[in-house]
C-alpha cells in the first residue's frame, strides 16, 4: 500500500508550471481546454486524483481508476498548428524518461505510434492532443492530455493493457511521484525542442519505437494497409514501406502490431 501521507500530498513541480490540483473532475482535458480558452498561461497543468469522464483519441472512454495519473498540460508555443502534433512525441519521450526514473530497469519502455507508451509490450499510457488556432493556422493553445496506469489497469480493453505496479514498480511509487518526474522531463524535452527542433525528439522516440522495422497493419478510413514500419518523417509522420516498393506517409491512422487484432 502507498503510505497515506504520500498519497495525499500535493505534487511539487518546477516553477515553470502552474498547478491546478483537483480531487475529481469529469476530464482534465475538458477543464484544461476551458482554462485555455479563458487565457490560462503556458505551463498550466491540470491534475486530478479521479476522473469521471476521461476520454482518449476518437472519443474512446478512458478508464480512470483512482491511483492512476490524469493530467492535462496547457502549452502556447509560437508555432503553426501543423507543428502541434510533434508534442505527442515530446510528451511520450518525457513520460518514458519519467517512468524510467521511478521504475526498475527490467521494465522495458517503448512507444507505439502515434500516442501510446508501452511497458513490456502492453499499453500503460495514452496521450491526447487538443488544440485551438487562428484563421492563419497559427497555434493559440495546445492541451496535452496524459492518462497513465500506475496502480491498476482495465482488464477489458481493445489491446493488452498494464500498469507500473503490475510490471514490478514498487507499490510505494504513486501517481504523484510519476507526475513530478514527468514535469521535470517534459520541461527538459520542451527546451530541447525549442533549441534544436524536432530531430532530437524524433531520434529519442525511434530508439524505443515498438514495431520498428517490423510488418504492421495500418487501418485508415476506407482502406487497410500492410507494410514495414521503416521510421518517422521529419514531422512525425509514419513511414510505411509497401510490397510494391513504394513508401506511404501516414499522418493519422490506427496501427496494429504483430499479434494485435
Break the fold down into its secondary structure elements and pairings.
Blueprint: H1 4-8, E1 18-25, H2 28-37, E2 44-51, E3 69-75, H3 86-102, E4 109-112, E5 116-119, E6 122-133, E7 139-148, H4 175-196, H5 199-207, E8 215-220, E9 223-232, E10 238-241, E11 247-250, E12 254-256
Parallel strand pairs: 1-2
Antiparallel strand pairs: 2-3, 3-7, 4-5, 5-6, 6-7, 8-9, 8-12, 9-10, 10-11
Helix pairs in contact: 3-4, 3-5
Brief overview, please?
With 261 residues, the chain is an alpha+beta fold. It is 24% helix and 31% strand. It contains 5 helices and 12 strands.
Can you tell me about this structure?
The structure is a single chain. It contains 5 helices and 12 strands. It is an alpha+beta fold. The strands form 2 sheets. A 7-stranded mixed sheet has the order 1-2-3-7-6-5-4, sandwiched between helices. It has a 5-stranded antiparallel sheet with strand order 11-10-9-8-12, with no helix packed on it. A hairpin with a 5-residue loop joins strand 10 (238-241) and strand 11 (247-250). Helix 3 (86-102) packs across helix 4 (175-196) and helix 3 crosses helix 5 (199-207). Residues 1-5 have low confidence and may be disordered.
CA(first)-CA(last) distance: 35 Å
How many beta-strand runs?
A: 12
Shape: globular
Structural class based on helices, strands and sheet pairing = alpha+beta
- Number of helices in the DSSP assignment: 5
Query: What is the average of the pLDDT values?
Result: 91
- In terms of per-residue confidence, which ranges show pLDDT below 50 for 5 or more consecutive residues? 1-5
Query: Could you describe the largest sheet, including whether it forms a barrel?
Result: 7 strands, mixed
From N to C, what is the helix and strand string? HEHEEHEEEEHHEEEEE
Adjacency order of strands in the biggest sheet = 1-2-3-7-6-5-4
Strand content: 25-35%
* Rg, alpha carbons: 18 Å
What is the helix content?
Answer: 10-25%
